[in-house]
Amino acid sequence: MCHSDPFKRMQAVLAETQPLLAWDGGDFPSWQIRARQKLKELLGMEYLESCSLEPQILEETECPGYHKTTFRFQSEPDYLVPGCLLTPPGKGPFPLAICLQGHSTGMHISLGEPRFPGDTESIRGGRDIARQAVAEGYCALAIEQRNMGCCGGDEHGPNCYVPTMGNLLLGRTTLGERIWDVSKALDVVSLLFPQVDLERVICTGNSGGGTVTFYAACLEQRIGLAAPSCSVCTYKDSIMAMQHCVCNFIPGIRRFFEMGDLAGLIAPRPLLLLAGEKDPIFPIQGVRESFQTIQKLYQAAGKPNACAFAVGAEGHQYYPELAWKGIKMLSEEIGFSVK
């Protein structure tokens, strides 16, 4: 009888595989160039298609405490991305917070607008990040991420499996697509919204939204500060240790990097790592190990005070008080104030 365990074999291979492109103590800017190019390659960014954005403002709405603009744009040929910008009272210009929902029923969760059963409970759990951001004095940008909401999901949540696995056959990744849409959304903001100061851009999100926040900040250097929540952990302790949605997977990534190594592509721009002490799918020991790596990279970048780590007492959720306190602290570190 066969008693082989493929999971144990994978773990043995993992233990023997040292990341080929982790920073080795050499010239840091040169390493960043090489590592960023490899990450783009692994994400399949070269297979995404540029096109005219064709942005359209669809609706303007006055809401208590902010103005809401609903819009859409084309990020690839015939692929439309819905978005909303919340603008606080005043003349501006305002800093921008890109607010990315995790695996949910759609971007309306970030906006604090329940549509389906269970949404209200999700929002009460601190996931109305765009509404939090506008209360903090930011213009808050929410976009519908691929395979979620009206871009492939439904009232039960996202539908990532078939599109993601199909992408792998084409050399693309769902993470690459979501990062691409974030970058194109910033292009649209520059065209449509003069009240936004694109010299002061932050990005934050929880779970799947935190994952996109982290990788987007690695590649999109207009993101001046990143605050991923419950999403950055060693691959060995999280993504490779238990079942996760297929949209988290980047073919070949662990041959070149551990997740913490990639934070060197964000440095010296500020990075706030948020985690839950009891998070079952991004275990805290793997998060702490990642942050130790991150601290060394920020030291190499000459900005040791530009990274911070905050841990909430509970599980897999967004921690608004910790998040905005940490964002304010790191913003002040670089003179990135909210007027």
Report low-confidence residues grouped into runs of 5 or more: none
Number of separate helices: 10
Order of helices and strands: HHEEEEHHEHHEHEHEHEH
For the secondary structure, the number of strands is: 9
Q: Strand order, biggest sheet?
A: 1-2-3-5-4-6-7-8-9
Molecular structure report:
35% of the residues lie in helices and 20% in strands. The longest helix has 19 residues, at 174-192. 47% of the residues are buried. The protein has a nine-stranded mixed sheet with strand order 1-2-3-5-4-6-7-8-9, sandwiched between helices. The chain has one domain: Rossmann fold (3-Layer(aba) Sandwich), CATH 3.40.50.1820. With 339 residues, the protein is of the alpha/beta class. The protein has helices spanning 6-16, 28-43, 119-127, 129-135, 161-169, 174-192, 208-219, 253-256, 284-300, 320-333, and strands spanning 56-63, 66-76, 79-87, 94-100, 139-143, 196-206, 225-229, 271-276, 307-312.
Keywords summarizing the entry:
single chain; 9 strands; Rossmann fold; 20% strand; alpha/beta
Topology:
Elements: H1 6-16, H2 28-43, E1 56-63, E2 66-76, E3 79-87, E4 94-100, H3 119-127, H4 129-135, E5 139-143, H5 161-169, H6 174-192, E6 196-206, H7 208-219, E7 225-229, H8 253-256, E8 271-276, H9 284-300, E9 307-312, H10 320-333
Parallel strand pairs: 4-5, 4-6, 6-7, 7-8, 8-9
Antiparallel strand pairs: 1-2, 2-3, 3-5
Helix pairs in contact: 6-7
Summarize the model shown:
By secondary structure, this protein is α/β, with parallel strands linked by helices. The protein is built from ten helices and nine strands.
